[in-house]
Design goal:
The complex is a heterodimer. Chain A is of the alpha/beta class. Helices cover 36% and strands 27% of the residues of chain A. In chain A, β1 and β2 form a beta hairpin. The radius of gyration of chain A is 18 Å and the shape is globular. By secondary structure, chain B is an alpha+beta fold. Helices cover 49% and strands 19% of the residues of chain B. Chain B contains 13 helices and 16 strands. Chain B has helices at 2-11, 14-52, 146-149, 176-182, 218-225, 256-263, 268-278, 289-329, 332-340, 345-383, 391-394, 399-424, 427-431; strands at 56-60, 68-69, 72-73, 83-84, 100-114, 120-128, 132-134, 142-144, 154-157, 169-175, 189-192, 197-205, 214-217, 230-231, 233-238, 282-286. Chain B has a six-stranded mixed barrel. Chain B has a two-stranded antiparallel sheet with strand order 2-3. A two-stranded antiparallel ribbon of chain B has the order 4-14. Classes of the chains: A alpha/beta, B alpha+beta. Bound molecules: adenosine-5'-diphosphate (ADP) and magnesium ion (MG).
Amino acid sequence: MTKDTPLVENLIEQTRPDCAVISLNGVTREYEGHAGKVCALDHASFSIVAGEWVAITGPSGSGKSTLVNLIGCLDRPTHGQLHIDGIDVATMSATELDRFRADKIGFIFQQFHLIPYLSAIENVMLAQYFHSMTDEKEARASLERVGLGQRADHLPSELSGGEQQRVCVARALINNPPILLADEPTGNLDATNQKIVAGLLQDLNRQGHTIVMVTHDPEMASLAQRRIALSHGKVFCHPVGSPVVTLRR
Amino acid sequence: MFFRLLMESFRRQRRRKTLAGLAILLGTTAVTAMLALATTIGDRIHSELAVYGANIVVYPAADQLDVKVGGVDVKPVTGAAYLKESGLKKLRGIFWANNITGVSPELPVHIAGTTPSGKAVDATGTGMWFKHSLSDGGGSPLVTGAPTLHPLWKLNGAWPDEALSGPASTEIAVGNALASQLGLRLGDTISSSGKVALRVVGIVTTGDAIDEQILLPLNAAQMLAGAPDAVRRVEISARTKPEDAFARKDPDSLSPKLREVWYCRPYANSIAYQIREAIPGARAEQIRRVEQSEGNVLKRISGLMWLISAAAMLAAGFAVSAAMATAILERQAEIGLMRSLGASKGTIAFLFYVETGLLALFAGGFGYLIGSGLAGWLGARIFGSDASVSSGTIFNPVLLPVIIALALVVAIAGSTPAIRRALTMEPSAILRADV
Ligand SMILES: Nc1ncnc2c1ncn2[C@@H]1O[C@H](COP(=O)(O)OP(=O)(O)O)[C@@H](O)[C@H]1O
Ligand SMILES: [Mg+2]
């Protein structure tokens, strides 16, 4: 922490705002806890440009999930402006946010959150259903893309953790959202499966998806072009060899 | 996909859904049985009261007021104050003849004599029909008399037989109070002052003035009174259409066309009017006692049934509410996930509502069937196993949509709190990774 310099003001200038697909300006999220207000995210200001892969790190309880949920429009900031794809989320109605989420965001969860009574392909089709229309061929293609073409009709309970996470990736991809949000995607996986999922994310990033990934794992974090460190809800930045941070140096 | 979600969610959480379904099933069963019974009881009471109760009374026209002293009619025996018994068969010829279900003429007569034990008899006698065959020549005769109109009279022994009435002897029935006062028993004979032997064949308990009287066949009373063919008053029961404003119109003030309509409706007033036409010198009037008591009974019964139905549905609603609360709580993670996939609150609420709606549909349908069966069984127990409570009246098809709608309303109302609460939960909190 001592070596880290808060870069709250500088960072917006460093990234080109016209390219920013995600931009936060003084975003704060407070929760009403039992013992008064908890500031889960404290005046976060930074931008993420299109096609960037950003790793978010920090100790448990530092506000990483809060940040991801805000970017995913599952939650709204208490203060501050949050622009996603150029739109201020505060100006959107609840229904517009739902629509926006279906179109722009793909979630990958640590606990996968697959629906246990639906087969792998049905879990993928569920995302299609809430987006527009189900298309079994497309869903199957998406599963093939993550290497699960043969397991499409299995229930989540019949799949290994790694396979379940790949289903989750396939589901996040199915509507071709520009932004992928991954909250500790490899947190529950062994090294082999972590590699597979990491490879998938690399592919996706190469194809132009913006990825915001929460991780504890230094190896995973090193795959990202930039690292945003959180501590007690405040943002610190680590240069991880991204062009943006190189500029800063 | 929607149906897949529905189907699977039915297959899962079977216990909770069974619980909610069972609550709706029991509620609708109770309501169906209550409503089916309420309608059957209505029909049933109506038909029983209509058959047995008198709703029209016929007097001689000259006789505007009863002149009774101490319960004894003191009018002079003149032709004008009596109706002709032989004229009553014209009742079978009026427009609504088939709606007349009971006819009971009466002739009061004073009876004096001595009992076998030597006690003096000084009582009012009423001549009446007990099992008289009324016919105007064509069609099947109407077998009727006072017992038809008074089903609550209790008889010990037999009704007097009018065929055995003669100048020397006749059969009689004695009111319960009078019999015990005079120490009369079945088979005893009163020798009247007119030298007629009155043989007691029945002792009757009515709970009214008849308990103090002697009942005898009308023809015997006419002989004792020396007034052949005479009738003092006639009670008639007729199946009628409930009285409405039109029924109370004076037919003679109506246009010919409307008068025709009035005449051809089975109002008590119309039937009374037709009786006046058929029997010259008669004054026929509607008496409303029966319809009113019928209305009161029905009002009370249906009030009770509504109360039970409302209680049953309320209980079902609470049970559904409890079952759905846990069922939906168990699916919080699913709801959070669906929200993250872009499902709106409305979409998810719709899914849950359709699910409970389907549940209500099935449970309500079964509840209707079981309730109808229950109503049939209860009906048979209440009314005895006689014919008119047939399955046709119990399976009331009009009730089905009512019951289904009720089940839907209860299910939707019951699950609304749970659904609302589930949807106000922050999906971000549900999906939080490291909890
Ligand atoms: N719904 C909530 N209500 C109250 N406090 C919350 C809620 N969600 C998160 N917090 C608090 O906010 C802080 C940040 O949580 P979170 O974003 O989950 O951290 P991380 O994902 O980095 O472990 C924690 O102190 C947590 O207790
Ligand atoms: Mg977290």
